[in-house]
Amino acid sequence: MGVIGAGAIGLSTAWHLAQRGHHVSVYDPRLNDPVHRQGSANDLSGTSASLGVLMGHVFRRSSGRGWRLRRRSMELWPQWIGALQTHQPELKLDLGLLQIAEDEQAAERMEGLASQRVDLGLEIVAKEALNKVWPTATHGGLHSRHDGRIDPLLLQQALREALNEQSVEQTTTAVVHLERNNNNKWSVHRADGESTLHDVVVLSTALTTDTLLEPLGHARAMTPVLGQALSLQLTTGPTSWTNWPSVLVDQGFNLIPTSPGRLLLGATVEPGDCAAEAPMTLMRSLNGRAPEWLRTATVVAQWNGLRARPMDRPAPLLEELEPGLILASGHYRNGVLLAPATAEWVAAALEQP
Ligand SMILES: Cc1cc2nc3c(=O)[nH]c(=O)nc-3n(C[C@H](O)[C@H](O)[C@H](O)COP(=O)(O)OP(=O)(O)OC[C@H]3O[C@@H](n4cnc5c(N)ncnc54)[C@H](O)[C@@H]3O)c2cc1C
Fold first, then answer.
1. Residue whose CA is closest, atom 16 of ligand 1?
2. pLDDT digit string (tens) for 198-208?
3. How much distance in Å is there from the Cα of 335 to the middle of ligand 1?
4. What is the DSSP string of 83-109?
5. Which CATH architecture has domain 2-52+152-221+311-351?
């Protein structure tokens, strides 16, 4: 089968399918590029731009597909990381995510979630306990023991190496056209003029998916939503991150300590695909709630990326559009989080009797 697109979704799906004994080929011109953010800060795939935050158990809803996918991914991640560490020993699951309550209403909602999900590792943190970490948290917060973060660059490296070990064929050319043949196979036509036949194709091409789908009569429009991220070096403030969780979320901004005196900050959500200065300034000040040490930190690196948000349909798009044509795309804000559950969904879709 052919997997088109090798971001978190395509790589994870290809790996999972290869482990289950399928013969897999992956197509993506980006497979030629090393996985890093240097020099290409405005031309990153969604996965390379991402922060890798896994907000699984703090999801507001307690039923429906979104909740099921999140729970399943969070069950699978520890096993996946264990297996992928063979290829990338530094890859790890940094556990512990703290959401700050913005107001009394948010604090009440968090209390409700924590009381329902004690078994899943959620607990309320009183404001007094947050004094050292985040003094502006006047309404306390919600700590999730099993949510956290993985490094999306290390993840991609590990998955690429895992694909090599599984002898997955990797083609570094873009796919320009898909065609269904009379014998129910799919011709995958590439930009270099070559084409290959597959029984099944999986589309994990994020924002460009419609270019391949529209000619087949399956339009699934997506809109870009830009996110910005900063790597910061502190000049004052905490010298170590003792007592800090792996991820602190305040008003939707993620703060991720990476090493002593260093942290990542992101990501603003702006419709469109152009980075503007104003949201960046807002992010640095956290709407006026940032501690002094964050406002005075030096920017070491800065990048942005696009999230693919499905229009008129909930994210992600997981569908078998016609026999052998599987769509696994449009993961919007949670593609890294949902990668294992997505891979499992694809395998189930194509293995069903
Ligand atoms: C700033 C930012 C922060 C984020 N933070 C988080 C986070 O903390 N946690 C989280 O879970 N998610 C986060 N996300 C969202 C997450 O990054 C995406 O949901 C996820 O990366 C989607 O993965 P993907 O594989 O579908 O897409 P991508 O990573 O964009 O990969 C798509 C791939 O398809 C390839 N492709 C496209 N067209 C073709 C073609 N015609 N032929 C061959 N290949 C093709 C592209 O080259 C690309 O490599 C963030 C996103 C951004 C922008």
1. 335
2. 999 999 999 99
3. 7
4. HHTTT-TT---EEEEEEEP-SHHHHHH
5. 3-Layer(bba) Sandwich (3.50)
